Amino acid sequence: MTHARDERNALCDLLDRVGPDAPTLCTGWTTYDLAAHLVVRERRPDAMPGIAVKALSGHTASVMAAMKARHPYPELVGIVRRPGGVYGLAGFLDEAVNTIEMFVHHEDVRRAQPGWEPRDLPAGLDRLLWQRVSAGARIMLRRSPVGVVLHRLGGGVALGGPRKGPRVEVTGTGSELLMFCFGRQEHARVELAGDPEAVARLRSAPLGI
Question: What is the DSSP string of 146-169?
């Protein structure tokens, strides 16, 4: 079993438990919407560009709506549980591409529920998530209005944002830094240090891929 499959299974178990109308951290999306997004992302390549490109998002939204109309929620979650498209044929691609996707969306559901607490993750998973953060910090933080210095508890530093001007120090585990850099700043258990105005601007910035 890989980290990607573990997170996929845990996410689907949670989706089954909370039902189709539970909130998520994805603005405007219920768990039903999130399940449709995951199916479209893996199984409808024609609609994938609209996930990242705003001008094409209308087609993606329409495909997601059709997916929900065609599949009852439990059936849709069952489809998510099985890696689709090329990821279902090549396990190494599933691990390379979907570990972050499944982890973040698992947390999107967990952290939208009352009383959530951070998980005690396996050291190997937290280390892998940090590797992805440190490799992609410049991209994930490209829209930050201030410089950012990421400090991983246990070792590791990565930089992002503008190279000049004020900087904010952000400290946490690899998994919490990932959530922060993916635009979930208000739901990431990290410590921020720096000029209060710079910290406030970073907290509200549109971070992520």
Answer: SEEEEEETTS-EEEES-SSS-EEE
Q: Which of 32-52 are b and which e, b meaning 16 or more Cβ less than 10 Å from the residue's Cβ?
A: bbbbbbbbbbbbbeebbebee
- What secondary structure does DSSP assign to 6-56, as a single string? HHHHHHHHHHHHH-TT-B-SSTT-BHHHHHHHHHHHHH-TTTTHHHH-GGG
Q: Which of 135, 126, 119, 143 is nearest to 3 (CA)?
A: 126
Tokens 């710079």 map to which residue? 198
- Round to whole Å and give the CA distance between 157 and 134: 7
Q: What is the C-alpha separation between 102 and 97, in angstroms, rounded?
A: 9
Neighbouring CB atoms inside 10 A of 95's CB total: 16
* DSSP 8-class letter at 192: E
Q: Rounded to an integer, what distance in angstroms lies between the CA atom of residue 76 and that of residue 73? A: 5
SS3 call for 122: coil
Q: Which two tokens stand for residue 98?
A: 């979907």
What is the model's pTM? 0.92
**pLDDT (tens digit, 9 = 90+) per residue, 36-46?**
999 998 888 77
Q: pLDDT tens digit string along 96-148?
A: 889 999 999 999 999 999 999 999 999 899 999 999 999 999 999 999 999 99
**Token representation of residue 15:** 């989706």
